[in-house]
């Protein structure tokens, strides 16, 4: 899979993708991350990429002509819309989630466009496929959101992690069950005895029940979107 990040600040990405799981995925050639400097497509000698908003207002707006040229240069002309997506990271977008991350793993090319300053010219939306947000808050630009998207998508690519690892974690269906390790007891707080029993069927059942209970308490919205066949029986055990 190829991921292209369009940004005014490619230097911000030095480090985050050079460690841990993303680095391993790159070494295995399971993902290739490409950085495109939007300023390379700027106007004139000074490579201007933004201007004042029409109608007045604070801040500077990224120009549509500059962004569109960067996108056009980055797109793979031989890929269909089912193989390639252009995503603008924006507070106007739907909230990015695990389901969307998994959906992106089916692509051959994911293009992430990082806005900055006061925002982007509205007309750029004619040249993208989708807008995505990472939450109800404002970041300085799209760079840190892009890092989160890349990390979430990369770890779900087949072959990056051991098979089965991502099927039992939070948001695979519900929030994940609690995890414990040594010591067995610490300052009067002990590991649940069921986890020390060695009975894997009972442990699995306990984890499923606790997972549902935690989800019902902290994220009931996830239960509302889950299939009834998954939630109906376990809910009676609360």
Spatial shape:
elongated
What is the CA-CA span between the terminal residues?
43 Å
Low-pLDDT stretches are: 232-238
Write out the CATH superfamily name of the largest domain. Answer: SPOUT methyltransferase, trefoil knot domain
Q: Please name the CATH architecture of the largest domain.
A: 3-Layer(aba) Sandwich
Provide the structure class: alpha/beta
- Provide mean pLDDT, rounded: 89
Strand order of the largest sheet: 2-1-6-5-8
N-to-C order of helices and strands:
EHEEEHEHEEEHEEHHH
User: How is the main sheet built?
Assistant: 5 strands, parallel
Number of domains: 2
- Work out the helicity level: 25-40%
Strand content bin: 15-25%
Keywords:
238 residues; alpha/beta; Alpha/beta knot; Trp Operon Repressor, Chain A; 2 domains; five-stranded parallel sheet; three-stranded mixed sheet; disordered C terminus
Describe the overall structure.
By secondary structure, this protein is an alpha/beta fold. It folds into two domains: 153 residues, SPOUT methyltransferase, trefoil knot domain (Alpha/beta knot); 68 residues, Trp Operon Repressor, Chain A (Orthogonal Bundle). Helices cover 29% and strands 18% of the residues. It is built from seven helices and ten strands. The strands form three sheets. Strands 2-1-6-5-8 form a five-stranded parallel beta sheet, with helices on both faces.
């Amino acid at each position: 899979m190829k991921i292209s990040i369009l940004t005014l600040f490619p230097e911000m990405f030095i480090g985050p993708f050079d460690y841990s799981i993303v680095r391993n995925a790159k070494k295995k050639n399971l993902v290739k991350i490409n950085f495109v400097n939007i300023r390379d497509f700027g106007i004139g000698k000074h490579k201007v990429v933004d201007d004042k908003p029409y109608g007045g207002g604070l801040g500077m707006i990224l120009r549509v002509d500059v962004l569109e040229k960067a996108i056009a240069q980055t797109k793979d002309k031989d890929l269909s819309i089912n193989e390639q997506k252009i995503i603008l990271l924006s507070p106007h977008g739907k909230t990015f989630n695990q389901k969307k991350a998994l959906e992106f793993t089916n692509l051959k090319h994911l293009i992430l466009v990082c806005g900055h300053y006061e925002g982007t010219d509205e007309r750029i939306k004619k040249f993208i496929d989708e807008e995505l947000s990472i939450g109800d808050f404002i970041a300085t630009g799209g760079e840190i959101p892009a890092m989160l998207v890349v990390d979430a998508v990369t770890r779900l690519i087949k072959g990056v992690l051991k098979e089965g690892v991502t099927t039992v974690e939070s948001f695979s269906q519900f929030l994940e069950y609690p995890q414990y390790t040594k010591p067995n007891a610490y300052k009067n707080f002990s590991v649940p005895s069921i986890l020390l029993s060695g009975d894997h069927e009972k442990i699995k059942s306990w984890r499923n029940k606790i997972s549902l209970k935690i989800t019902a308490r902290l994220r009931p919205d996830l239960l509302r979107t889950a299939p009834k066949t998954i939630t109906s029986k376990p809910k009676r055990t609360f």
